[in-house]
Write a structure and sequence with these properties.
The chain has a two-stranded antiparallel sheet. It contains 4 helices and 2 strands. It is 40% helix and 5% strand. Bound molecules: FE2/S2 (inorganic) cluster.
Length: 93
């Protein structure tokens, strides 16, 4: 029996390394596909922590260089921002 690897690779969405490698074994071989299947990269950090780690796993497993991988589109805000920043200018009168 194969030992399951419960190492967490995406802390925001609680995705383990084993889930990522299982997805790759099932045929999901792009960063976008793994992201859509497991939601890794969709947490509060927007993948700043996990996407490069997942890219490394994909690269190791598929043999595709990281430089040839397409990373998901980053959407603003790039970092979490308190809502008061957006309302501050509205309240200045
Ligand atoms: S660690 Fe994966 S989205 Fe934050």
């Amino acid at each position: 029996m194969k030992k399951k690897d419960k190492t967490i690779i995406c802390r925001c969405e609680d995705v383990s390394l084993e889930e990522v490698t299982s997805a790759i074994d099932e045929g999901y071989t792009s960063l976008e596909e793994v992201k859509r299947l497991l939601r890794c990269g969709m947490g509060p950090c927007q993948g700043r922590t996990c996407l490069m780690l997942i890219a490394q796993v994909l690269s190791r497993t598929t043999g595709k260089p990281i430089t040839e991988m397409q990373f998901p589109t980053a959407r603003p805000p790039v970092r979490p921002v308190p809502l008061v920043i957006f309302t501050a200018s509205k309240n200045k009168k």
